[in-house]
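Form 7-S
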Amino acid sequence: MHMPRFIQPISLILILLGISLTSLLAHEHGHEAGYTILKRQPIAHDFYGAAEMVLISGRVSGDVVVAGQRLSLDGPVTEDVIAAGEIVTINGDVGDDVRAAGRLVRVNGQVGDHMVAAGETVTLGPQSKISNWASLAGRRIEVFGKVGKVLKIAAEEVIIAGELMGEVNITAEEVKILADAVIHGPLRVQSPNPPEIATGARILSSVEHVPMPEVDFAPVLKVIALAGLVVIVGLILTGLVYFLMFPQFSIATARQIEQNPLITLGLGFVVLLLAPLVIVLLLSTGVGYLLGVVLAAAYLLMVIAGGMTGVIYVSDVALRRLFNKEAASKGVMVATLIGAFVLLGLVQIIPFIGSLVVLLLTVMGIGALKYQFWQQYDPQGRGECR
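Output:
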């Protein structure tokens, strides 16, 4: 059974969100963006940056929030670190918490409080020390350092070779406790296989192996099918209401996909990937929690509206190209919309391609909405709908 595999798509999403932040522009003192950010001198304030490569070797007296492809924090940070990217390396000491996500995440310094990390591979190096608790998720988790309190791990493969002072809870397919490991608290492993404990490893408390429970998927599949039916009906009704309330705007927006395919695709991906990262940062820092909740609700509505725009685009193209109707009545359009929903539902049967088609329509629909708003409310007077 491969339950921990759910970590992989989550980690991939976090990586994409981190990389997407590289398009942010600087907007105030201490915020930077570009291809490379190199900081060797001390920074006496919070630092926010996004670039393909971020290297900070000087002391930072405050928080660090960075994103990019390759991130390296070599100097000490007095407060929190939030880092998202492809390769994240934290060599310096951190005074408070660490929250990191990436394909490869490695911590070699000391963390003053707790740590939360997710990635394909997450490694706590031999010199690392997490003073409080740690929660790690990924395909492969390696712990060679010291964790002061509770350690929770969800992964496919786990390697323990460090000193763990508190309780250890692991959910994984394979767990290896190497000879250098010292575990002071109870060890609980939920896995289809018993943990491999090397000779010489010291576990000073109890060891509990809990086999993965067998799951009867029949009731789950029934619930999923019923929920799917409810969602499909709800989306059809939402699409019809959206079109009937804004017929001219919705059709003009949908036609932006045909008129400006590359622009709508690019804008759609930027909004789809960038907005969640902004939401996560607002919620995780606590400063803008309320704004993060509002933005999350607005983002959900934007995704739904983007999907509806994609369906309307399919309907509009079908009417114009197949039936030569440039301006159909509302009744005809409603019937075509329902047909488009059914068609896209059938396309979903095709593995991968069906999901890809729906994703691209949604992304381009989001981009078309953004572009249409720019066109319609352009202060230079270019906002006439096409």
